[in-house]
Specification:
The complex is a heterodimer of chains A (about 80) and B (about 650). With about 80 residues, chain A is mainly α. Chain A has four helices and no strands. The model of chain A has no long low-confidence stretch (mean pLDDT about 90). With about 650 residues, chain B is α/β, with parallel strands linked by helices. In chain B, the strands form three sheets. In chain B, strands 15-16-14-13-12-11-10-17-18 form a nine-stranded mixed β-sheet, sandwiched between helices. A five-stranded parallel β-sheet of chain B has the order 2-1-3-4-5, with helices on both faces. In chain B, strands 8-7-6-9 form a four-stranded parallel β-sheet, sandwiched between helices. Classes of the chains: A mainly alpha (about 80), B alpha/beta (about 650). At the A-B interface, helix 2 of A face helix 4 and helix 13 of B.
Chain lengths: ~80, ~650
């Protein structure tokens, strides 16, 4: 599965809107938990689980712990997709 | 992960515009029937995010004091040693599916004992209708005592004492019903298989606790949710998601939350008396393989040793088992009554007999009307009924016209029909009474037919929603094999039952004195393939005689025959034909089309003692009503120049 960045951001925007139940969210590399209302630790878990399921990949908890901004998440998705190929 | 369970495959898929629909309900005027509409949305297979959104609308409606009728209120306190924040909204939304407006009381993480023992705790003050002890094995003092039977007995007794003390605390301060859960086994073993043999291993201890708890509940009259069996069913390795436990202390996989929540909601609905009571069975390709009207007693598949037959026998076995525990069985089939009863009376391999069936509705009316008649006869509400049918169009029709009836989706492979029905849990009960035991006997030797009231409205709208396309072509080499098969197999919707061989059909393809039609029908559920065949023969002075007209019963009730007649008339007019003649040749199996020509506006010109009737239609003035479907006519050269290929594709939409 090859996926370029715009595609990943597009799918992530869809996931964010679904998880946070907020249609105005547009996902950018700099977006972080500080910017989104309701992005607490539990919603974060639901977000990561939805990302894993949608992209059919698994992260380790160590990797999840290091995520700061959406850009980090996209990088991780790309790495995982590349190694799966 | 097994998708039947994880994705709740007995429920229809969630609509693409789920979020939009939910929002419009949230923002609707106060007079809007929120309860019913939310329930119809919740009757789809929803994932965790969708359940969470739906629960949010419920919470908001409650905060705004909007009515959630006809949903029945229920307050459930959940005590747990793990993170239940994902579970709570899933419970609220799943309960809506089962007709319950659920309020979940969720005390702080890992506070079970404090909550039940202190009289002014959040749980005790909230006066719950029930308390769910959603504990997992990690909440228990499971001290291993490898090979030591006495020590292991003491451990199990201690754990049971702890659970009982929680129950006593609940009962002391509230009137709540206590719902215990069995414990899902951890996957990891120390020895391997020996873990089951030796006392005091984790596997033995958890099994012993589950057994002791089940025995206790049977005595105490509390309720048990068998989480251990649920986890075993989906697979323990999938149930225990270690990533999620380490990350967020969730005791099982987030992907199984919708399944778990539906199981809790079933129990709550059962407590409120909302379990279903009747199973209505379609017959052809549901109770047996094949079509009794076409394949006959020898042709249907219902025997041991035959893969298809055994799949359908499994459906019968499950139905009979349900009947033995008090579920009433009924039949709803598009067939003539005598034909439908034949396998029950004459087929030696049938497990179900007529005396198991309380109401037996076999006729050619739409199934929604018949199901309503069954409900009236049994004096039960539609929400007590489950309808099992292999045909997605029939399922869609009943869901649309009678949304209170539960209609499980079925997979393509009949081998999984019985499992899917069982997985849906429609008949979940919290007790088995002597009344249940005797209920079946009340309907012994019945197999009664009930008279229909007027047809249910809304059929037309349903036909439109099917988005049907009908395709007409003359006979050709590609369609030949299927045409021959239909001509030689169709018995019921067949006016003349004339059988032709492959060379006969091939000859008709290029005979200028013969007009032929092969008809296909597609709808939102897919392509039904070739479903009708017509042969007209030029007969002297500007007359066409309909030699053969047959149709698959699968598409009955969609006015395909009207569209076929319109197509015949179009070609007849182009050929200068003035009169169309038809004949009905009665057989033991084609009473269905006795008044076929009459319904289509033909004039009866002769009736013989043998029952043969002859019919005529004036081609110029005839104008039969159409049906809501798109028409494609392909490959006819009648009225088109040979090189005008595009014009040979004619499209017409009749609404």
């Amino acid at each position: 599965m090859t996926m370029d960045e715009p595609q990943i951001y597009g799918r992530l925007t869809h996931i964010f809107r679904d998880v946070f139940d907020e249609d105005s969210i547009t996902v950018t590399p700099e977006l972080s938990a500080l910017d989104v209302e309701g992005w607490d630790s539990l919603t974060h878990v639901r977000l990561i689980m939805t990302v894993q399921k949608t992209f059919k990949i698994k992260f380790s908890n160590a990797e999840i712990g290091k995520l700061q901004r959406v850009g980090d998440l996209v990088k991780l998705i790309q790495e995982r997709a590349a190694s799966a190929r | 992960m097994n998708s039947l369970y994880a994705d709740l495959q007995w429920l229809p898929r969630a609509p693409d515009d789920f979020s939009e629909r939910l929002k419009s309900m949230r923002d609707a005027a106060p007079a809007f029937d929120l309860g019913t509409n939310l329930q119809s949305l919740a009757r789809h297979a929803l994932n965790l995010n969708q359940l969470t959104k739906l629960a949010r609308v419920i919470d908001r409606a409650r905060a705004e004091r909007r009515s959630l009728d006809p949903l029945v209120p229920f307050r459930l306190a959940v005590l747990s040693n793990s993170t239940t924040d994902f579970i709570a909204p899933a419970l609220v939304a799943s309960a809506v599916r089962h007709g319950i407006s659920l309020e979940v009381i969720l005390p702080a993480y890992d506070q079970a004992a404090q909550e039940v023992l202190s009289p002014d705790s959040q749980v005790n003050r909230s006066k719950p209708d029930a308390v769910l002890l959603a504990l997992d094995f990690r909440a228990l003092p499971l001290t291993l005592s490898l090979g030591d039977g006495d020590a292991s007995c003491a451990t199990v007794a201690g754990i049971l004492g702890y659970l009982q003390s929680l129950r006593l605390g609940i009962k002391r301060h509230t009137n709540a019903i206590c719902i215990f859960q069995t414990f899902a086994l951890p996957v990891e073993t120390l020895f391997g298989s020996l873990d089951r043999v030796l006392p005091g291993t984790m596997r033995s201890l958890v099994n012993n606790v589950n057994d002791a708890l089940s025995a206790y509940v049977r005595e105490s009259g509390d309720i048990l949710l068998d989480v251990s069996a649920l986890a075993d069913t989906v697979g323990l390795a999938d149930w225990h998601d270690l990533q999620l436990w380490n990350l967020a202390k969730c005791s099982f996989s987030d992907q199984l939350v919708p399944l778990y929540a539906d199981h809790v909601a079933r129990i709550v609905a059962a407590i409120r008396g909302k379990s279903r009571k009747v199973l209505i069975l379609d017959l052809d390709n549901t109770v047996w393989g094949g079509v009794i009207g076409d394949d006959g007693l020898e042709g249907i598949r219902v025997a041991q040793g035959d893969a298809t037959g055994e799949a359908h026998l499994a459906v019968q076995q499950l139905a009979l088992g349900l009947r033995d525990r008090g579920i009433v069985l009924a039949v709803c089939s598009k067939n003539s009554d005598a034909t439908a009863r034949l396998p029950f009376e004459k087929h030696a391999e049938m497990i179900l007999k007529l005396n198991h069936i309380a109401v037996f509705q076999a006729n050619w009316n739409d199934k929604a009307t018949n199901i309503q008649a069954i409900a009236e006869e049994l004096r039960l509400g539609l929400d007590a009924l489950v309808f099992l049918d292999d045909n997605p169009v029939e399922r869609g029709l009943v869901r649309r016209l009678l949304p209170q009836v539960a209609v499980p989706e079925l997979p393509d492979d009949a081998a999984y029909y019985a499992r899917t029905l069982a997985a849906a849990g429609y008949f979940e009960s919290v007790a088995f009474t002597s009344e249940d035991r005797e209920r079946a006997g009340l309907y012994q030797d019945n197999a009664k037919r009930v008279r229909l009231q007027k047809n249910i409205g809304g059929l037309e709208a349903y036909l439109i929603s099917l988005d049907m396309t009908i395709t007409f072509k003359p006979f050709d080499a590609t369609g030949r094999a299927r045409i021959v098969q239909l001509i030689n197999k169709s018995n019921q919707y067949n006016l003349t039952t004339r059988r032709y061989t492959e060379p006969d059909v091939a000859a008709a393809e290029c005979d200028p004195g013969v007009f032929t039609l092969q008809v296909r029908l597609a709808d939102i559920f897919g392509d039904n393939g070739m479903i009708s065949v017509v042969i007209c023969r030029a007969d002297g002075d500007r007359r066409w005689d309909i030699d053969t007209w047959l149709m698959s019963c699968r598409v009955l009730g969609r006015r395909v025959e009207n569209m076929v007649l319109r197509e015949i008339l179009r070609h007849a007019r182009a050929a200068g034909v003035r009169t169309l003649t038809g004949i009905y040749l009665p057989t033991a199996r084609n009473a269905l089309v006795l008044d076929h020509y009459e319904k289509l506006g033909f004039r009866r010109v002769a009736e013989e003692a043998s029952g043969i009737t002859r019919w005529e239609l004036n081609v110029e003035t005839a104008n039969p009503p159409g049906a809501p479907m798109k028409t494609l006519s392909l490959g006819f050269r009648l009225d088109v120049a040979p090189d005008a290929v595009d014009e040979a594709r004619r499209e017409e939409t009749v609404r």
